[in-house]
Design brief:
Low-confidence stretches: 1-10, 12-22
Strand order of the largest sheet: 2-1-3-10-4-11
Number of strands: 11
CATH superfamily of the largest domain: Periplasmic binding protein-like II
Number of helices: 13
Distance between the termini: 42 Å
Shape: globular
Order of helices and strands: HHEHHEHEHEEEHEHEHEEHHEHH
Strand content: 15-25%
CATH topology of the largest domain: D-Maltodextrin-Binding Protein, domain 2
Oligomer: single chain
Mean pLDDT: 91
CATH class of the largest domain: Alpha Beta
CATH architecture of the largest domain: 3-Layer(aba) Sandwich
Number of domains: 2
Radius of gyration: 20 Å
Largest sheet: 6 strands, mixed
């Protein structure tokens, strides 16, 4: 397969493009001062100085924060074993508790491979040197999810406008479907702003928001329906506990990638593992197949996260690192 055989050549070429760039004086766009972007693809270049490249004996992998990390540690088990075979290194699963903690772990060099959720991808790219290259997709190559605003039967909320004067649960400020997309849509389409028109609360995770609505702890919540589909398939919640008030356009799902300063050869081997992994009968298929995913496909941050950056711009989101 061409995708599998060209990674080293592509990464080596990308590295050579920035050979003359000094770290202190280089093109970087919105990237933090730690990184360079001489090739203009909006992600951090691999350091040209070999002494600044990492080749750790143990690789740390983290999936986006979820309600029950143990479920996803098991779901990723077969893939991580395959990743060990492809890289010749030990791989450990790191359960993260928040988007901020995940970003900080990669920025500090403690996290090497990760899946960052849709909304936190830009911050991870700009502040942690994250280089996303793939997302999950269906067998036909289709991918994505929608943001939905949910309530429960009998809540007294029949339409989005009815949220005025009531409560709406978000997940966290870095989440696309859990905060940024609904904030932009509510402001643009309904002239509704948090604090002024409704009470915003934060659940921390999509799972929490969905369970909160199903158990009537929250009157309404904005969530990613890919998470909802998996929770329904596991009988964590039932469809008749929830009512959908709004569904958005389709957004890219969790983006998977690596820390910018892993060696080009290691980055190539990691990419090869993602694209050559056989889903059939695997623990990944058992969990994510419930939502229709069946493979990893190539993406670029520059193209596939364009709509997310536009939503961030509408919300005046800054990618400055704190």
């Amino acid at each position: 397969m061409k995708l599998r055989t060209s990674y080293v050549a592509i990464l080596a070429a990308a590295t050579s493009l920035v050979a003359g760039a000094a770290q202190a004086e280089c093109e970087r766009g919105t990237l933090d001062a730690m990184y360079c972007d001489a090739d203009g693809d909006l992600i951090a270049d691999i350091p040209t100085d070999a002494s600044k490249q990492m080749d750790p004996s143990t690789l740390v992998f983290a999936y986006t924060p979820v309600e029950d990390p143990a479920v996803y540690k098991e779901a990723w088990a077969d893939f991580l074993s395959y990743l060990e075979e492809k890289t010749g290194k030990k791989v450990v699963f790191f359960p993260v508790q928040s988007n901020a903690a995940q970003i900080e772990a990669m920025r500090s060099g403690r996290l090497h491979i990760a899946g960052f959720n849709t909304g936190s991808n830009p911050l991870a790219v700009n502040c942690a040197g994250f280089r996303p290259f793939t997302i999950m997709a269906g067998a036909d190559g289709s991918f994505g999810y929608e943001m939905e605003i949910l309530t429960y039967p009998g809540s007294g909320i029949e339409a989005v406008e009815d949220i005025k004067g009531k409560q709406l649960a978000f997940t966290s400020p870095t989440s696309n479907s859990g905060f940024k997309a609904p904030s932009a849509i509510l402001k643009a389409d309904y002239d509704m702003i948090p604090e002024r028109d409704f009470e915003p609360v934060y659940s921390g995770k999509h799972d929490n928001s969905i369970l909160g609505v199903a158990n009537k702890d929250y009157q309404a919540a904005s969530i990613a329906n890919s998470v909802l589909a998996r929770m329904i398939s596991r009988d964590v919640v039932k469809e008749d506990q929830l009512v959908s008030l709004y569904k958005s356009q389709t957004f890219p799902t969790t983006g998977y990638g690596v820390a910018y300063n892993l060696t080009p050869e290691l980055q190539a081997n990691i990419q090869d593992a993602f694209f050559s992994f056989n889903w059939e009968g695997s623990s990944l298929e058992e969990e994510f197949g419930k939502n229709g995913e069946a493979q990893f496909i190539p993406i670029t941050y520059q193209e596939h996260w364009d709509v997310i950056r536009k939503i961030d711009s509408a919300n005046d989101v800054s990618y400055a690192c704190k």
